[in-house]
Design a protein that fits this description.
Layout lengths: L1 H26 L1 H22 L4 H18 L21 H8 L3 H13 L3 E3 L5 E3 L1 E2 L2 E2 H5 L1 H40 L1
Antiparallel strand pairs: 1-2, 3-4
Helix pairs in contact: 2-7, 3-5, 4-5
């Protein structure tokens, strides 16, 4: 099938690009490491302040949010309306959250109670937890919009910083290759 070949080619190109970028970042490790760690410090500090020091609750909420987004993602890359999906597809269990995060199950259950009290998640009768939403917006997204806006700006800065490293290295390699081929002529 032609579509399968195109999809495999796309995956191969992506894997090759990821390998190239990883090689460049390894070669420029101090620059890369400084920028990534700076991002993590700023972001985790902001999250910690927003969650009043409770990073585990933010991690539990993040896992539930990822399950939600993954369930909404259509094969074409668009996102479906959560009202058209069964609630159990939009959530996950305390056990699964514990498995993913490494947080003990009892601690996860306590964090879920806090998130439920805040109105950010709901528990289905079968003990599946999902984001609380109305009118197409989750309560967590609404309440954490300031944090989200700061995170987007921080990530944009990290992306452009890393992009500069990768682009500069690519230009250096191109110039080095061009000057080496010019010497051979």
């Amino acid at each position: 099938m032609a579509g399968d070949g195109a999809a495999r080619s796309k995956l191969a190109n992506r894997a090759r690009r990821e390998g190239d970028v990883a090689t460049i970042l390894e070669a420029h490790y101090p620059e890369y490491q400084y920028r990534v760690v700076q991002f993590l410090i700023e972001h985790l500090s902001d999250v910690s302040r927003t969650f009043k020091g409770d990073l585990q609750s933010s991690l539990v909420l993040a896992v539930i949010g990822q399950v939600w987004l993954n369930a909404l993602k259509a094969p074409d890359g668009s996102y479906l309306d959560p009202a058209h999906l069964p609630p159990e597809r939009l959530g996950t269990s305390a056990t699964r959250i514990s498995d993913v995060t490494g947080i003990p199950r009892q601690t996860v259950r306590r964090k879920l109670e806090v998130l439920e009290e805040r109105g950010w998640i709901v528990r289905n009768p079968d003990c599946i937890y999902r984001l609380s939403s109305s009118d197409g917006e989750t309560a967590a997204r609404r309440d954490l919009s300031d944090l989200d806006a700061r995170a987007i700006l921080r990530f944009a800065r990290l992306f452009t910083d890393l992009e500069k490293i990768v682009t500069a290295a690519g230009q250096e390699a191109h110039e080095t290759g061009a000057s080496a081929s010019g010497k051979r002529a």
